[in-house]
Specification:
This is Family 3 extracellular solute-binding protein. Belongs to the bacterial solute-binding protein 3 family. The chain is an alpha+beta fold. Helices cover 39% and strands 20% of the residues. It has two domains: 97 residues, Periplasmic binding protein-like II (D-Maltodextrin-Binding Protein, domain 2); 94 residues, Periplasmic binding protein-like II (D-Maltodextrin-Binding Protein, domain 2, 3-Layer(aba) Sandwich). The longest helix has 18 residues.
């Protein structure tokens, strides 16, 4: 879906770009060094904001979910999985609560599909992954359908196309992207892309608060 949005935005601003697939961590490193003009989908933290250029326009928001086996019980706090093995994709951030939680074993994988394969084979206990990414990989790997279940919503961040501070075209491409995003939101193209992927603009199909929101509420309570 992100690629569809990015292509549409640049097309709307009459800008020619080439999209190429990379593992996320590799993509971000190439963008940081200036070998690539940009990389998506990024959930910015303080480090990313310092190292990269961020556009005004957000690609979309999506749920970060903790996935387990189909028969596993729902989870309402990370303390429920203390000591367990969780597959995480190299380079991704999952919200301050999850990223700072020390009492789980993080098993690093290069791609989300690798984490789900490990969960299938019992090599990890859980996988953390975006809803949209998981939906896409299950469409591409139908043999996995029905084996996993989302146990809780961990976080719901905004995702960005992040631009390099070192690539010579990045600043101009950022301006073109923002202009194109505003255009496709205005003419309905953006909403049609979300509908094609069965995602509504800014809305989650899951109910209730995320673990990150509950953690924030506890932290802010007197």
């Amino acid at each position: 879906m992100s690629a569809d949005i990015v292509r549409a935005a640049f097309s709307a601003s009459d800008t020619s770009v080439e999209l190429a697939p990379y593992p996320y961590s590799r993509c971000m490193e190439l963008a940081r060094s200036g070998s690539l003009a940009g990389c998506f989908n990024t959930t910015p933290d303080a480090h990313i904001r310092a190292e990269f250029l961020l556009p005004q326009e957000v690609l979309f928001s999506d749920d970060i979910l903790l996935w387990g086996h189909a028969g596993d019980a729902a989870i309402d706090d990370l303390d429920a999985i203390r000591g367990k093995r969780v597959a995480v994709t190299i380079g991704y951030t999952y919200g301050e609560y999850f990223d700072s939680y020390a009492d789980i074993q993080r098993i690093a994988v290069r791609r989300d599909i690798n984490g789900f394969r490990m969960l299938q084979r019992g090599r990890v206990d859980y996988v953390i992954a975006f809803r949209g990414t998981t939906d896409a990989l299950l469409r591409d790997n139908p043999e996995l359908v029905g084996q996993f279940k989302a146990l809780t919503r961990v976080h719901r961040p905004r995702l960005y196309l992040t631009f390099s501070r070192r690539h010579p075209r990045a600043a101009a491409l950022l301006r073109d992207f923002d202009a194109g995003m505003r255009q496709i939101r205005q003419d309905g193209t953006y909403q049609r892309i979300l509908a094609n992927w069965q995602l509504s603009d800014g809305q989650s199909s899951a109910h209730g608060s995320t673990l990150q929101e509950r953690h924030n509420n506890k932290t802010e309570s007197p």
